[in-house]
Structures are given as C-alpha cells and as structure tokens.
Specification:
heterodimer, A: about 90 residues, alpha+beta, 3-stranded antiparallel β-sheet, B: mainly beta, 2 helices, 12 strands, about 50% strand, globular
Chain lengths: ~90, ~150
C-alpha cells in the first residue's frame, strides 16, 4: 500500500468552538462510570455535554436515531462489552 | 509535533477495569460537516477499520473499494468478514493535519480501529501502560505522499 498523504488542516473558528465544546465530554467518556459502562456495553452511543443522548446496537441504528441532528456537536463512540478483546 | 492522549477505561471480565489506548478522530461527512469518533489505537491491526455504515456516512460507495476478506484469530471460513478498502481522509486536530489512509469498512458491525498501514507511517506511536497515555509524534512531512 502507498504511504499516507499528510496535509495541513486548520478548522474554522466555528468548527474549533464545536470541537472544544466536546473536549469535556470526551474526557467524561474516557472515564465513564462503571454503571454506565454496564448499561451501554456493546452499544454505539452519541454523547454530548457529558451525557449519552442516544444509544443503539449498531452505527446504522444510531444514525437513524440521530437523523436531523447536528452530528458535529456530539461524539460517536462504541462501548465494548466487558471482556478481553482481541480485535479481528 | 507531538501530543499525548489518556487511555480510556472500559469493563473487562468480572467487571474489572481495563484500559485502552484511544484517539478521537474527525471525519468529514457527505454533508460537509465533521463528526468526531473515538478510535482504538491498535498496533496489531494491519489496517484501520470501521463498519460499512461509516462508509456511507462519509459519502463513499462501499462496493467501489478494494474488496478484501478480513481474518482474525479464528481461521474458520465462517468467521471471514468481507470488507472494502478505501482511501479515507481523517483529521487529527492536535496535529493540525488531514491524513489520507487506507481504511477498511467491514460488512456489518465492527469496532473503530486505527491500524498500522497509513496511520503508523505518519505517526510514531508510543504506548505507556504505566502512565496510561499514548504519545503521538507526527513524523511524516506535511504535504508528503509516499512511495
């Protein structure tokens, strides 16, 4: 395969503001409380403002739930089931 | 240019905590806006991976990719999953770069992984399990297209 193409990228001011607004939510996702990890195990979730706003069994189903929403304002995540994972 | 990211906490067997190296990456959707997704940084994966639905979200046609068979530790025929490899632009905010990498969209559901091909050509990745951080150093030249 060919090596990657790397290009400079600067988000617009409004994009940067939206990204910054999500930083706290990302940190919250990284340290998701145990009860929420259990609740959403195996699910795709959309998170915003330190909360889960939608959850589904697949990305397809999640995007269906989010139809018409501003995807840029949220973080999409997949919460693994409680197991030792070897990705395949 | 280098930056570090904390690992995330998930549940392992018996509800014990396990930690995973992750990186949040931005993708541009077919509508032009960005979407932020959380990827596992997986040095054991040959290629980056996501579900087929993601392919449509970013405006690519799945069947126009290079069709491959995804195989893992289970070598049985019934465990083979079809996938389509496209060149996908991903945006790494901390590095201020857009990186175009080979990316496999697997049929059905799949985890979000950043694998070696492409991503590890652009970034030197250092996992620090004791500190639970990953350091990413962009060592590809901006504007570089290799080989």
């Amino acid at each position: 395969m060919v090596r990657p193409l790397v290009q400079s990228w600067s988000p617009s001011e409004s994009e940067e503001a939206a990204f910054r607004a999500g930083d706290e939510t990302l940190q919250w996702l990284c340290d998701l409380p145990a009860d929420m990890r259990r609740q959403y195990a195996g699910k795709w979730i959309a998170a915003k403002e330190r909360g889960v706003i939608a959850a589904a069994d697949s990305l397809d189903a999640l995007l269906g739930l989010l139809e018409g929403s501003d995807l840029q304002s949220m973080i999409i995540d997949r919460v693994e089931r409680p197991a030792w994972m070897v990705y395949r | 240019m280098s930056f570090s990211k904390p690992w995330r906490t998930l549940s392992g067997p018996d509800d014990r905590e396990k930690r995973l190296p992750i990186l949040d990456v931005y993708l541009r959707t077919a509508h032009g806006s960005f979407i932020r997704e959380v990827f596992v940084v997986d040095s054991g994966a040959d290629v980056s991976l996501g579900p087929r639905r993601l392919c449509e979200l970013v405006g690519l046609r799945w069947d126009e990719g290079e069709m491959i068979e995804l195989r893992g530790i289970a070598q049985r025929r019934e465990c083979v999953v079809p996938g389509a490899v496209h060149r996908l632009p991903i945006y790494v905010r901390e590095a201020g770069c857009k990186l175009t990498i080979p990316f496999c969209f697997a049929a059905g559901d799949a985890p979000l992984l950043l694998g070696r091909e492409g991503f590890f050509d652009a970034f030197r990745v250092e996992f620090d399990k004791r500190r639970l951080t990953t350091t990413f150093e962009l060592f590809a030249e901006v504007g570089e297209v290799g080989r």
